[in-house]
Amino acid sequence: MQFDNPYHNGDPARLIYAPFAGRQAAMARVGALVTKAGRPDGLLFIGWHGSGKTALLHAIASTMPDSFVGVIAPAGSPPRDETSWLVSLAEAITSALVDANFTLSRLSQIEPPGENPRRWFEEVFLLPTLGALHPNRRMMLMLDDVDGLIQAVRDETLPADTFAFLSALLTRTPALHLILTLDEDHEDDIPLLAPLIGMTDVFRLEPLEPDDVRWLLTAPVATEYAFLDEAIKAALALTGSFPALAQRLGFHLYERWRSAPELGTIRAQDVRAVQPTLYLRSEDEHRTVWERLTANEQIALGALAGLHYDDPLRKATAETIQRWLVETDMPMDVTTIQAALRGLTYRHLLVSTPEGVSVRAGLFMTWLLENAGGRTRSRAAPSAQVPVERWRAAPPERPPARPDSSRILRFLAVLLLLVIAANIIVYLLTSGGSPAPVPTGVLPTATFIEPAITPLF
After folding, report:
1. Residue 235 CB burial class (10 angstroms; 0-12, 13-18, ≥19)
2. What pLDDT digit, counting tens, does each position of 196-233 carry?
3. What is the rounded CA–CA span in Å between residue 278 and residue 217?
4. CA torsion angle 307 310 311 317 (round to 10)
């Protein structure tokens, strides 16, 4: 299958044909895995959503030497029982061998699973299947997103020793090797994979190197258009070197060139021109990332967005975040903020330097500014249990201030003086303009009209 646009844009049908960049260290770990046949352990790649785990498996399958057959079996959905799971593995293996043009006449005589699905898979299916290969050929079985299997073991849908069974299967079948992938949100579940996976068998995926992003954006389209350095810098700042975002950016830049093929050079303004489309296409993924964060991590990111809004060029520290949060209803101490920043950096959402931290991907910062508040210090901070829409509301109104007693006394004094002045004027007007002579020994008197004052309370 061929596509006009070389990039996959998140489409699984395009994934196998899309260009693949970097991951030299991961490939080296795969090479080390297959140096010893019959080893009881596999290799686990762990990464966040969009880190390129599935793309890596396809790259492994397509770059292995002829002595290997790669089989990718999705494992994200928990199986209903062990029989259905092992049958699905058998179907994935059969499909991969058919695609590789192997003759599978022996499989037509295979009996269906009985009461012992493990014996059926190993002895009835797997051994005849491996026998159909050349004696020197080996199989690389790759289980993508094994969080579904972990959940099935927790729910007792699969036996508790499922991963021990796979480990023993590797020992008994030297021609078989096993690679797994796992979302980083399930990192705490890695001990459940023992003895198949030990701590030395875990490889954590990082964002791509800048040179890998440059190659990914330029090499597949070198005959169509070129990139200026300013465009590469803008692409790195926008995507944060995340593989999925870089693929998506390449896809939309290619579509932009197709609409105007006379433009043979991509500039920074072209990268900015496709940013709105890229943002809309990635919005749901950013929301998923946000919802997986802890409450403290959400608060810290909201503060970072607010600080960025105030000064886009300034990097933040735990102290500046604390000062910013003082004027919100979710203040945090420096120690808690530092812990949240370490967690966000570990998730590759932040970049840490001696001057402070900043959000890695400009596209994610745009999402934070639009969805995570921070534009005004009075916005409420989020909660891990509350959706973004519910805490983005305007800050609560302050209760009306209580009247100041000194102001009331000043008001009454002024009102009293006005009443006295009014009585004097009335007296002068009714007496003809000049005061009558005052008899000796008689003191002048004045009549005051008591004002009607409306109570203030």
Report:
1. buried
2. 999 899 999 999 999 999 999 999 999 999 999 999 99
3. 15
4. -20
> Is pLDDT of 383 > 60?
no
Question: Is residue 35 exposed (0-12), middle (13-18) or buried (19+ Cβ within 10 Å)?
Answer: exposed
Tokens encoding 86: 């092992």
Distance CA 241, CA 206 (A): 9
Domain limits of the chain?
23-204, 210-286, 293-391
- Give the predicted TM-score (pTM) of the model: 0.77
- The confidence score (pLDDT) of residue 431 equals 62
Q: Which residue in the block uniquely carries the two structure tokens 């933040």?
A: 316
Spatial separation of the C-alpha atoms in residues 142 and 74, rounded to whole Å: 8
User: How many whole angstroms separate alpha carbon 124 and alpha carbon 106?
Assistant: 10
Q: Say whether pLDDT at 398 is over 50.
A: no
Cα–Cα distances in angstroms (integers) from residue 247 to residues 6, 10, 236, in the given order:
9, 8, 12
Average pLDDT rounded to a whole number, residues 252-260: 91
Query: Alpha-carbon distance 70 to 124, whole Å?
Result: 21
Token pair for residue 288?
A: 């998923």
Architecture of domain 23-204: 3-Layer(aba) Sandwich (3.40)
Domain 293-391, second-level architecture: Orthogonal Bundle (1.10)
Higher confidence at residue 298 or residue 424?
298
- Pair 281, 10: CB distance under 8 Å: yes
| Angle of helix 229-239 versus helix 362-371 axis, rounded to 10 | 50
